[in-house]
Amino acid sequence: ALAASLAMAGNIMGPILYFVLWNAIRMAFLWYTQEFGYKAGSKITEDLSGGLLQEVTKGATILGMFILGSLVNRWVSVKFTPVVSNVQNQKGAYIDWSSIPKGTKGIQKALELQAQGLSLTKNKITTLQDNLDSLIPGLMGLLLTLFCMWLLKKKVSPIVIILGLFVVGVVFHVIGLM
């Protein structure tokens, strides 16, 4: 999942990381299980029904939850669109587009001005999402994920959850909340 997120961002390290880590894990697992099977012999069935399998399952669960937690912020997106404030910038604090030349020179000039810290628009618009992100970035995505996990724990069907998220998303978009 980590390599996939890197690859989706266009980073060449994604496929390389996947190839190297997957093969390293696979080879280590093959080596360990071969050695373990050779040493344990017929006692392996007793070990697997006892504590060893439970420990492996517990470790895999912890690793899965760690990966899920680290990728929630990247893959779950909740954006609230209501405008909280709309303040007009002072003259000279934004790019005056009427003074920018046309063509590639204008693009270069605009990028230089933006790099100097000038705003692209005359107004500074702050949304509800900007305020939430200034407090704790990704909080709403995390809360949504935890809510879905809670629903799954309460035996709510994943199809019902997906359809519910779809309906809520459409309704919130129509009323201008998202």
Which tags fit this structure?
178 residues, elongated, mainly alpha, 2 strands, two-stranded antiparallel ribbon
Q: What do these coordinates show?
A:
The protein is mainly alpha-helical and 178 residues long. Among the domains are: 1-75, no CATH class; 83-126, no CATH class. It is built from eight helices and two strands. It has helices spanning 2-8, 13-40, 44-49, 51-75, 104-115, 128-135, 139-153, 158-174, and strands at residues 83-88, 123-127. The protein has a two-stranded antiparallel sheet with strand order 1-2. Helix 1 runs antiparallel to helix 2. The longest helix has 28 residues, at 13-40.
Please give a quick description of this structure.
The chain is mostly helical.
Shape: elongated
Q: What assembly state would you assign to the polypeptide chains in this entry?
A: single chain
- Which consecutive residue ranges, at least 5 long each, have pLDDT under 50? none
Mean pLDDT: 84
The number of helical segments is: 8
Q: Roughly what percent helix? A: 55-70%
Number of strands: 2
* Fraction of residues in β-strands: 5-15%
Largest sheet: 2 strands, antiparallel
Distance between the termini: 27 Å
